[in-house]
Amino acid sequence: MSTNNPLLQDFKFAPFSKIETEHFKPAITEAIQLAKSEIENIASAETEPTFENTIEELEFSGEKLDRVTSIFFNLNSAETNAEIQKIAQEVSPLLSEFRNDIILNEALFKRVKAVYDQKDQLDLTTEQKTLLDKKYKAFSRNGANLPKEKQEELREIDKQLSALSLNFGENVLAETNKFELQITNEEDLDGLPESFKEEAKAVAESKDKEGWIFTLDYPSYIPFMKYAKNRELRKKMAIAFGAKGFHGDELDNQENVLKIAKLRYQRAQLLGFETHAHFVLQERMAETPEKVDSFLNELLEKAKPAAEKEFATLEEFAKELDNIDRLEKWDSAYYSEKLKQKLFNLDDEKLKPYFKLENVIDGVFTVAGKLYGLQFNETSEVEKYHPDVKTYNVTDENGKDVALFYADFHPRPGKRGGAWMTEYKSQYVKNEKEERPHVSIVCNFTKPTKSEPSLLTFNEVTTLFHEFGHALHGMLANTVYPSLSGPNVYWDFVELPSQVLENWCYEKEALQLFAKHYKTGEAIPMELVEKIKESSNFQEGMQTVRQLSFGMLDLSWHAIDPTEVNDVKAHENKAFEPTKLYPDVPENCMSTAFSHIFQGGYSAGYYSYKWAEVLDADAFEYFSEKGIFSKEVADKFKNNILSMGGTEHPMTLYKRFRGKEPQPEALLKRAGLIEK
Ligand SMILES: [Zn+2]
């Protein structure tokens, strides 16, 4: 089998044309076996453990498995089908079992620890020290140093936690699916866009029901709240949305919230940490809950006055328009949209002709060329997984090979929604041979039609720059070890390269390079650019306070000893007090549907969104000061951030780039919250 399986043969680029779906499972199973025997060789070696024969060997083990699984999971996101999804279900438990076995391998940990314990006597490079620390922590943070019975306690907690998170998520999903708003009186649809009404009618028809049906899914809920004139119906929808997991029935999540918070605390205590947040933040740029707390509070102090002013303006506007006496949560999106239209009247259709996809791609390549000397040449010599995919050879100013770049722009069945960057292969150096990365971005941009090319909305333009910023992090990587290369950095640092590049979309000097009318070639009028900038700051104070409130709620559950907390709603109200703008809705609770932190991996991490904005604004300010195409600043960014990956602590890297720690002032200025 293996000789005929293209995935198990040696290949430079992913051999898409030869891969059949039935190759994946045997290839993954065999690659796991191969990786297992590599690990076993390291663990059972008779020689004295050294950095090379233990840490480095461990780092380079499972290479085949990495290549095969990255092809498989990338396709499962970008070009999937029922068969691939079924295989994903089958191989996922095998892969997590394999990873667990490594972490629980005592003989292996003994050797890793032996190297770690003599780290100060070893003559290691900075990158090697980071790698050693990372490998050691992968074991210690999972209890490898604990006595047997404590280890078992930890496994028990982990088991309970994963069951509780799963149940939390199932409840939220069931609550979302349970509710529908059926409208049979057409007057109640006042304000809704035609196409949106049609969709709601189709939903009703598919369920053999009369009229129009609206649900709590985002594509239905968000436009409804934005456009529906009927205030009572908005109230009904908003309360249903906010009461998920808070009905006191079998789908209620209050017990889950309390149990999860308490078990996470216990787990952290077992491992010697003060709280769950202390545990999480040990591997973050922010480092401690105290630092996150003061970060959030400093921003709140600056944003709150602006938010209160914006709130008063909105309330006044609602009063003028519809005689609303007290602005409630269900009024927010509706009147904000109306006010935004009044102030900016900025229509996507006006902007789109200036953003033909091909022009924007040229633009982002030109920006990368001016900043980092990169050249992109389309190639047909590399295999693709779909004819729509474009492939480029990326070289530097000396013509040296930098990366292979895949770009996949348009939606199709089999591609999940959204936009993302991924890799088929990381950059690394092994046996003194430099391996360059294979980087990919996948998007879902408006397709061309017979009469019109693909014209992007401004939001799509910034999305392309964002994902391309992640791609640069991958392409310009220059490290030795793959697990420290490119975007393999701490969670609250990974969005810096992507978000910083979005800033170029708002700059005249950059827009002039590519934002030209697709028919006339006329450059985008500057008043339109100014309007884009202004409207991007619309209600920035309120938005900021909202994001901060989520970050504070997250910390309120994870940076404390939650043993005595028994009332979820009361706890939450206390956490929301400093950020409160709207009257409380007693029927609603945020925590019982806060999937980011109770189901997904964002616990003690919600602050990262704002943290990344502070970083990108502060970094871009440096570019602005010296010129947005300053070679000096670009070199510093490349040499200290993009090429360095996770080889050093992000704060060290950042300070080397910027000459100082990041400050929130640049963000506050950009957002119009303080004077420029
Ligand atoms: Zn991103």
UniProtKB/TrEMBL annotation:
<dbReference type="GO" id="GO:0005829">
    <property type="term" value="C:cytosol"/>
</dbReference>
<keyword id="KW-0482">Metalloprotease</keyword>
<keyword id="KW-0378">Hydrolase</keyword>
<dbReference type="Pfam" id="PF01432">
    <property type="entry name" value="Peptidase_M3"/>
</dbReference>
<dbReference type="InterPro" id="IPR024079">
    <property type="entry name" value="MetalloPept_cat_dom_sf"/>
</dbReference>
<dbReference type="InterPro" id="IPR024080">
    <property type="entry name" value="Neurolysin/TOP_N"/>
</dbReference>
<dbReference type="InterPro" id="IPR001567">
    <property type="entry name" value="Pept_M3A_M3B_dom"/>
</dbReference>
<dbReference type="InterPro" id="IPR045090">
    <property type="entry name" value="Pept_M3A_M3B"/>
</dbReference>
<keyword id="KW-0645">Protease</keyword>
<feature type="domain" description="Peptidase M3A/M3B catalytic">
    <location>
        <begin position="224"/>
        <end position="672"/>
    </location>
</feature>
<keyword id="KW-0862">Zinc</keyword>
<protein>
    <submittedName>
        <fullName>Oligopeptidase A</fullName>
    </submittedName>
</protein>
<dbReference type="GO" id="GO:0004180">
    <property type="term" value="F:carboxypeptidase activity"/>
</dbReference>
<dbReference type="InterPro" id="IPR034005">
    <property type="entry name" value="M3A_DCP"/>
</dbReference>
<dbReference type="GO" id="GO:0046872">
    <property type="term" value="F:metal ion binding"/>
</dbReference>
<dbReference type="InterPro" id="IPR024077">
    <property type="entry name" value="Neurolysin/TOP_dom2"/>
</dbReference>
<comment type="similarity">
    <text>Belongs to the peptidase M3 family.</text>
</comment>
<keyword id="KW-0479">Metal-binding</keyword>
<dbReference type="GO" id="GO:0006508">
    <property type="term" value="P:proteolysis"/>
</dbReference>
<dbReference type="GO" id="GO:0004222">
    <property type="term" value="F:metalloendopeptidase activity"/>
</dbReference>
